[in-house]
Amino acid sequence: MAAGLAAKIYSFLPENNRFERIWLLAMTDFKVRYNASMLGMFWAFVYPLVRILIYYVVFSFFFSKEIPNYGFYIFSGIILWMYFQESTKKGLNVIKSKRYLLENISFNKLDVYYASILTSQIGFFVNLFVLIVLLTLFGLTPSWRIIYYPLFILNLMILSLGVSLILSTVKVYLKDITQLWDLVLLLMFWINPIFFAKQKIFNMFPALLYANPLAGIIINSRDVLMYGKEPDWFLVGYNFVYAFALLGVGLLLFNKFYYKAIEKV
Amino acid sequence: MDEDVVIKFENVSKTFKIRDKVNGSLPHKLWSFVSGQNVRKIEALKNVSLEIKKGEFVGIVGANGSGKSTMIHLMTGGYKPDPGGKSSIKGSFIRLSLGLGFNGQLTAKENVYLNGSVMGLKISEINEKFDDIIEFAELKKFVNTKIKYFSRGMRARLAFAVAVHAEADIILMDEFFGGVGDERFKKRSEEIFAKAIVSGRTIVHVSHNLSTIKEYADRVILLHEGDCRGIGTTDEILDLYKRTIKVDRLSIEED
User: Fold this and answer.
1) Given CB atoms, is A175 within the 8 Å cutoff of chain B?
2) What is the pLDDT of residues A59-69, one digit of tens each?
3) Can you tell me the ipTM of this complex?
4) Is the pLDDT of residue B247 over 70?
5) How confident is the model at residue B67 (pLDDT cuts 50, 70, 90)?
6) Nearest to B79 among A106, A107, A263 (CB)
7) How far is B172 from chain A (nearest CA, A)?
8) Long-range Cβ pairs for the range A241-247 (8 Å, 24+)
9) Inter-chain residue contact B114 with A28, CB threshold 8 Å
């Protein structure tokens, strides 16, 4: 098993072009996405900002007394959410959208999944950049603890990859998974601590915090970024284990059912 | 697997289940959905075993619907054989077919880099080969044009150019050359065939174009209604092919 892992890492080294390939796949995807419109990449900035603004205006009626800097509170949660949403939806569809490559050329099928995660990552970093700039402008410059932030990005990547693989496999047998997942995402959007303060809901229903693999990431990343607090290390560990578990399941399922997936499209 | 063997089929069969659309009233539709009445089995390929060695040029001929494309898909791993069968392929491969293989929204240049990279070439290597590829495909004026504007012939030439320069171990051609290039292009393609064989590349060529098969194939596989009717030298098989068609035609006439 160690040999297998070593071989995997080896395949990512620059002599083999694997990383280049994944990067190219991700970049071209990103380009295509914004090709269709005139303003192109401008929308990558505008859409999240407008969304946050609307939520802020609507919700500050209810929560601004309890949560200071409510706008940033939402912003820091929503960028993670949008990454998760986008990468899982993309992952669900990636076999269909990359069929012209998968069908005709021999390469490691997982690469298209890595690439779809990476594409969403690009959008995420754009949003993160805007967030950090705004925080600084408003006098909320992140503390040194921001060095912990990459941990959460990594956690989210692993989680998204695992979920994408699982969903793709389910899609083979359940065509409606796309619509179903939309519903699940809708539900998750409101259960996650993007808008409300964690104390209330999670003290009442701690299960919600632990069943949801995303909640802890949002809370901890926000603590680190906005409040300069130490993250809850137990929660960090828990979320990582959760993400890895999902990834493991995803990889197993994918290896078994890939043939059916590409055939049935 | 024997050192030299690059593609191997062991008792490979492929059956498809298709569900036809039901015309009729709603109760009728519901009933056939539940009872599975309108599900058909198509036996695309029946129990084929073969071995293709490195460097061979193998032709696959047969009437339409005989299972040629299915065979290619089974080789690439696009389809999995029915239980009991095993298909294996060794080495990097590219399948050329009438389908796109390209993303229409991207330019020729972007597609060349993308396909080349997916095929295992490093970006530096693609940089070196890029001009050769474009020149071979005779598309110098269209490097930065989106593929969606290309004619079918242009796309085919580009696909072939990339395949050849990317140095895949195995090239699978799925009825690829139907009327694609002018005489000059056809000639250059044939030069490529000759070179490829010399350099040890394996080529599997599904075609109705019997003259290419006659000229280059080491061996030919004849398929008929999913059965492998024979694998042998070009002359043997082409003879058998013609006889098979004649028999069919006779039986139609007798009706």
Assistant:
1) no
2) 777 766 677 78
3) 0.79
4) no
5) confident
6) A263
7) 9
8) A242/A159, A242/A213, A243/A155, A243/A156, A243/A158, A243/A159, A243/A162, A243/A213, A244/A158, A244/A162, A245/A162, A246/A158, A246/A159, A246/A162, A246/A163, A246/A166, A246/A213, A247/A158, A247/A159, A247/A161, A247/A162, A247/A165
9) yes
